[in-house]
Design a protein that fits this description.
Elements (H helix, E strand, L loop, with lengths): L1 E2 L16 E7 L5 H14 L4 E6 L9 E3 L5 E3 L1 E3 L14 E4 L8 H11 L3 E7 L9 H9 L2 E5 L1 E2 L6 E2 L1 E4 L15 E4 L1 H12 L2
Parallel strand pairs: 1-9, 2-8, 2-9, 3-6, 3-7, 7-8
Antiparallel strand pairs: 4-5, 10-11, 12-13
């Protein structure tokens, strides 16, 4: 697996070439969706046919638009299940998928099928949940991807580099939709301090 240190090393893909999978992962507020939108817009400038999908459950900013935290947006097709992506993506060059952690492991087989058919597949999602446990589909997607980009946020407690998503809410659900009212990006030290303080209550 190639761990991409910057955003300039992934080549463009044209029709009838070998497909591949790119994964953009990281904590909340780390710029994953912003980077996904950037790559999709560049592909459109190159006259590639692009289709974008997101889980129908994610309506935080908009029902159909993929929207980054800094309000960049791109139109998408909401789907309930990963398999719903295959048919509408059959006639495109590039497939973008946002918030992939909300899908079950079926998303891995879908990504492989799309790449095997010659498509460039770009997938963005959280790599870890609020307990710092890997989201299973993201874990498996990184394993089968040709390119992996790890994005980082700024710790909202100390300003250091942040790779963890700390939940301010007391809910123990793995999936809990929310923004800055529920989550903070934190560095390893501040995340661990917060979890320790919570366990002592």
């Amino acid at each position: 697996m190639f761990i991409e240190p910057n955003f300039g090393k992934i080549p463009a893909v044209r029709k009838n070439e070998t497909g591949w999978i790119e994964v953009i992962c990281g904590s909340m507020f780390s710029g994953k969706t912003e980077e996904l939108i950037r790559r999709l817009n560049r592909a459109r400038i190159a006259n590639l046919k692009v289709e974008i999908f997101k889980p129908a459950i994610d309506k935080r900013y908009h029902d159909t638009m993929v929207v980054s935290h800094d309000k960049k947006e791109i139109r998408s097709t909401p789907v309930d299940f990963a398999n719903d992506i295959l048919l509408p993506a059959s006639d495109c060059d590039l497939v973008g998928i946002d918030e992939a952690q909300f899908f079950d492991n079926e998303i891995v087989d879908v990504a492989i099928k799309l790449a095997n058919s010659g498509k460039r597949v770009i997938i963005a999602g959280l790599d870890m949940d609020y307990l710092a446990k890997p989201f299973i589909p993201m874990n498996d997607l990184m394993a089968v991807a040709e390119f992996v980009t790890k994005t980082h946020a700024i710790c909202m407690k100390c300003g250091s580099i942040a790779s963890y998503t700390y939940r301010l809410d007391d809910s123990d659900q793995q999936v809990l939709l929310g923004e800055k009212n529920i989550y903070e990006a934190r560095c390893r030290r501040c995340y661990n301090e917060g979890m320790k303080a919570r366990s002592n209550h």
